[in-house]
Amino acid sequence: MDKGRVSDEILPKLNIADVVGSYVKLSKAGRGYKGLCPFHNEATPSFVVTPSKGLFKCFGCGEGGNVIAFVSKVEGISYSQALVKLAKKVGVTSSRIESVRFFDPSVKFEKEYEILNFAKGFFEFCLKNTNEGQAALDYLNARGIEQDIVSRFGIGLAPRDSNALIKALELNGYDLELAKRVGLINSNEFGGGFYSLFRTRVIFPVSNEFGQVTGFSGRIYLSSDKSFSKYVNSPDTPLFKKNQLVYNLHEAKRTARSTGRFLLFEGFMDVISAVRAGFSESVAMMGTSLTREHVALIKKVAPSVVICYDGDRAGLEATNKTIALLLEEGVDAQVVSVPDGRDPDEFIKTQGGKAFSGLVNAAVPAVDYVYGNLKANYNLNFAQHKAEFQKKVLDFAGTLQDPSLRYFLEKRLRGDLFYTKAEETPSPTIPARSVANGYSKSERQLLYHMLTSKRAFEMVHEEINCDFNIDDYRKIARWLEDFYARHDVIDIEACFEKFDTRLKDVVNQIMLTHRNIRPATDNEILALIKRVRDKAKDEAEKLSVRAKMGQIKRELSRQ
User: Is the pLDDT confidence value at 70 over 50?
Assistant: First the structure.
């Protein structure tokens, strides 16, 4: 089905500035409008709406498209859902619009989503308005889950009465066979009738990437029920498939678009504690290992994942499997090490959010994490251990997509296998005087932005003529000056061909270190330039003072 032809029916009836303006504060700018982008954090407006073309574009994060794409992105719904919503807004009904309803799963299952959403409301009511609910609230409060978090995550309660939900469904005119198909109830094998699948459990609704409730997970909360399974999930249905659902994804992706990462946990409680600690980009699997379907959902939003699994043996094994899949799928990964074999939920409750933030800030890149774990299994004083270690590392390196990661991993391996004290020399990738001078970090950041953006290069060239203080950085900048005179987009491979081994290492290290930094705004580029200029000025003044002191000493020595 051609969605473009369907959209042709409604686009002429929509004013993109009016629609976008209901979500974003816009101001007139020439023939169009400007505003702060709703898809990433920015201080200076780079989000532009052009009514004559019916398009929006953010020059900061790159998002763009027509009014249907805007509504889809800003509301976190599918393109088809946005199309149907806007068609209704302008009063367009046709066979083609209805065909979208039929063929797109997010629209096709409207009745299923409606009954699941009703069940969510029923569970929430039971938690907040019944005696059983008070006992469940006491349990949640004891675990640090207060009312604001209960509401934020839509947590509810399935009462002990297995007929309570069924009666509520019937009273509100819902089809019980439909309730059975979506995994809310089941039929009695003997005597007929139905019973609820969730009873005497705290209920966590599980939504898809568009925020639609697809099923539930119930956790025991009474000490007398400890003989039962801790968690019970909805059965597999057309909407609820554990290998395709990421808990809290719909809410987390709003922050992940800005931070460029997700924090990935093993359980719901970990996610809830992490959100309370300030990490709203937190998500978890549905009691299953990470799958390619999960990774595909994550990659659409952010390029990086911080793995925050339990610190016990099972958690460590799961971490290694997750790293392998993420790296295989081209997702950057880091690993948080939770001490003493604890899970993140327990750590946050006992040590606090600030301590957990420290663990996240100290997260180890996944490649280094795997390398360190492999190395810990061998004594490199023995030749056989060296050989086995080398094979393991090279096998792992062969699975990496990024050639720069393979290069540095193999370089590190050579260092560990063959390094001696006599071979120790200063690192060529970090010039000695760059360590002493505070402007080195700003220069590296500027150079990274110049390597990834012609706009950044032009600003640096205009302000300081690419006159970096560090020799290697200045050589690279001069090469960029020649390259950008002929091209609009940098070619890193061409960069490698032109440079000697030492400069290749410099560029490679800069690209690797800053690979997850979002594109800088003009103001951020100017701030970096000012830092470099100010530091250079300080150095020049120091040299001038030393020169004058030397001159004075020479004159005194002649007297």
Answer: yes
Does 444 lie in the same domain as 530?
Answer: yes
Residues 515-526: tens digit of each pLDDT: 667 778 888 888
483/489 Cα distance (integer angstroms): 9
Q: Which domain, by its residues, includes 384?
A: 377-423
Contacts 24+ apart (CB under 8 A), 292-300: 292/325, 292/329, 293/243, 293/244, 294/243, 294/244, 294/246, 295/325, 295/326, 295/329, 295/331, 296/329, 297/209, 297/244, 297/246, 297/249, 298/246, 298/249, 298/262, 298/264, 298/331, 299/329, 299/330, 299/331
Which residue type sits at 538? D
171 plus 125 within the same structural domain: yes
Domain identity same for 307 and 186:
no
Residue 139 in tokens: 């349990």
In angstroms, the Cα distances linking 294 to 281, 289, 345 are: 15, 9, 22
Same domain, 318 and 386: no
306 residue type, one letter: V
Question: Does 295 share its domain with 386?
Answer: no
Q: What length is written for the chain?
A: 559
Q: Band of the pLDDT at 468, cuts 50, 70, 90?
A: confident
What is the number of domains present in the chain? Answer: 5
Task: Measure the CA–CA gap between 84 and 101, rounded to whole angstroms.
Answer: 8
Do 192 and 226 sit in the same domain of this protein? yes
Element (H, E) at 364: strand 364-365
Last residue of a domain, one of 108, 139, 163: 108
Farthest-apart Cα atoms in the chain, separation: 118
Residue type, 407: Y
**Which of residues 348, 370, 392 is at a domain's end?**
370
Residue 557 lies in a domain: no
- Residue 539, classified by CB atoms within 10 Å of its CB into exposed (0-12), middle (13-18) or buried (19+), is middle
Return the amino acid letter for 182. V
| Dist CA 247 CA 245 (whole Å) | 6
pLDDT (tens digit per residue) in 358-383: 999 999 999 999 998 888 888 888 88
Residue 420, classed as helix, strand or coil, is coil
Rounded alpha-carbon distances, angstroms, from residue 364 to 261, 306, 334, 359: 14, 9, 5, 10
Give me the CATH number covering residue 510: 1.10.860.10
Shared domain check, 121 and 71: no
Identity of the amino acid at 359: L
